[in-house]
Design goal:
Layout: E1 10-12, H1 28-34, E2 38-39, H2 48-67, H3 72-98, E3 103-104, H4 106-118, H5 124-136, H6 151-160, E4 163-164, H7 174-177, H8 180-187, H9 189-205, H10 211-234, H11 255-260, H12 267-272, H13 288-298, E5 302-303, E6 306-308, H14 310-331, E7 343-344, H15 346-354, E8 359-362, E9 365-368, H16 380-384, H17 392-396, H18 408-415, E10 418-422
Parallel strand pairs: 1-6, 2-4, 7-10
Antiparallel strand pairs: 3-5, 8-9, 9-10
Length: 424
């Protein structure tokens, strides 16, 4: 078995998980073959299966909570099923199969395959196809859950209508089509999901005589919570938080979203570096999915964990800092740039002063101080005394002049008053 301790983590300097030629366009029938519940016309068609499922589950969960007392063993087991099926999606469907950010031994892949099926979010093949399309066409009409179409659409609405086969974004899933386990799960998805996600929790709850509670809490309520926890990755993670690494897409980093989504909330990082097995890159980031994968690597059950180099991560953060600084500079008034200032001669300067303009020369730049005369800390006459003169040495506090060197803030304020440069 491969030694999978942290030294075997692979350093990736690429952001792309999909090497599909961008010019390779699939035929409509090929998309339809790999997608379920598709529409072939531009007319909006309701996906009745999803609509009924996503309505019935919360309705049954609420009914169960109102009519069935929650027993402690059932609560503990429901929490276990919540973790198992939720991580089946995040560690399995998402990071293992959609992004291939690590590899795992057969038993781990099989357990994640079952756990993901029990979450009732479709097969690995269907889920990963949509997610790869999401990354390839982020925030466009070809993005299956385009966040720019609104919070509700990206969270839930996109599943309530059939995907338009003419508009759906294509993603390469040939690797999944060659995987016997993925093909088996896709073919037998419904019986696998019913067995692991429904029959198993109810039968286990029979051990302490609470099959009814097992059905309503470990199945329906758990399913509802896991659904919306993972749906938040498509909606809340594109609406709330900070853009730490890029502002070229709608993904945000948020600890709140991370807590709600098994660690998937550091989404800005994820969209910048999707091949990384981590979402929370810092040691203090809440990312239980990362912790699970790391623990599996220590046990030799996961290997080839991919991650971006610290240098590439810092580059992205610095670039964003520069962008923010430039945005703030654009808002602030720094005065005209040196290149945009017109040139005037000393004669023209003196003429304008003689006509009443309150101009001062400092460092060969002409400044109009008329709006600052009454606000000068040294008093109105102090500033008026230098109108029509070169006050550079006085402003800089050079020896021999009874003045102090002005501060950097004073210089910034002075820059807002410059109106011309003196021709020498």
């Amino acid at each position: 078995m491969t030694n999978a301790k942290p030294q075997h983590i692979v350093n990736r300097a690429t952001k792309n998980t999909n090497t599909q030629n961008l010019d390779e366009l699939p035929k409509i029938k090929e998309i339809a073959k790999d997608s379920t519940f598709v529409a072939t016309s531009d007319k909006i068609e309701i996906n009745w299966f999803h609509t009924v499922l996503l309505t019935a589950i919360p309705a049954l969960a609420i009914y169960g909570m109102l009519t069935t007392p929650l027993q402690l063993p059932t609560a503990i087991f429901a929490f276990f099923m919540y973790l198992y099926t939720g991580l089946g999606i995040t560690a399995g469907y998402h990071r293992l199969w959609s992004h291939r950010s690590y590899q795992a031994v057969w038993i781990v892949r099989f357990l994640l395959c079952l756990g993901g099926a029990a979450a009732y979010e479709g097969s690995v093949k269907w889920w990963s196809r949509n997610h790869r399309a999401h990354h390839r066409y982020t925030d466009t009409d070809r993005d299956p859950y385009n966040a720019k179409r609104g919070f509700f659409y990206s969270h839930l609405g996109w599943m309530l209508v059939k995907q338009n086969v003419k508009k759906i974004g294509y993603a390469d899933i040939t690797d999944l089509q060659r995987d016997p386990m993925i093909q088996w799960q896709h073919k037998y998805y419904l019986p696998v999901a019913l067995s692991v996600g429904m029959a198993f929790p109810v039968l286990v709850s029979f051990l302490w005589g609470d099959m009814r509670g097992g059905f309503f809490y470990a199945v329906m309520l758990r399913m509802f919570v896991v659904h919306h926890a993972t749906f938040f990755v498509n909606s809340l993670a594109h609406s709330l938080g900070d853009k730490t690494y890029s502002d070229l897409h709608t993904a945000f980093d948020s600890v709140v979203t991370a807590i709600l989504t098994f660690g998937e909330g550091y989404h800005n990082y994820h969209h910048e570096f999707p091949a990384d097995y981590r979402n929370g890159v810092q040691i203090y980031h809440y990312d239980p999915t990362k912790w699970l994968i790391t623990a599996l690597s220590y046990l030799g059950l996961a290997y080839n964990l991919k991650h971006m180099s610290d240098e590439e991560i810092e580059k992205a953060k610095i670039q964003m800092k520069y962008r923010r600084i430039h945005e703030e500079q654009a808002i602030l008034q720094f005065g005209k740039s040196f290149e945009d200032l017109p040139q005037i001669s000393m004669t023209e300067f003196q003429t304008r002063v003689a006509h009443g303009e309150q101009l001062i020369i400092i460092s060969d730049l002409v400044h109009d101080v008329s709006h600052f005369v009454h606000d000068h800390p040294g008093g109105r006459q102090t500033l008026l005394h230098h109108v029509g003169t070169d006050a550079t040495q006085y402003f800089e506090g050079i020896a021999g002049f009874q003045a102090h060197a002005h501060s950097k803030e004073a210089l910034k304020l002075l820059n807002t008053m410059r109106v011309a440069k003196l021709s020498l």
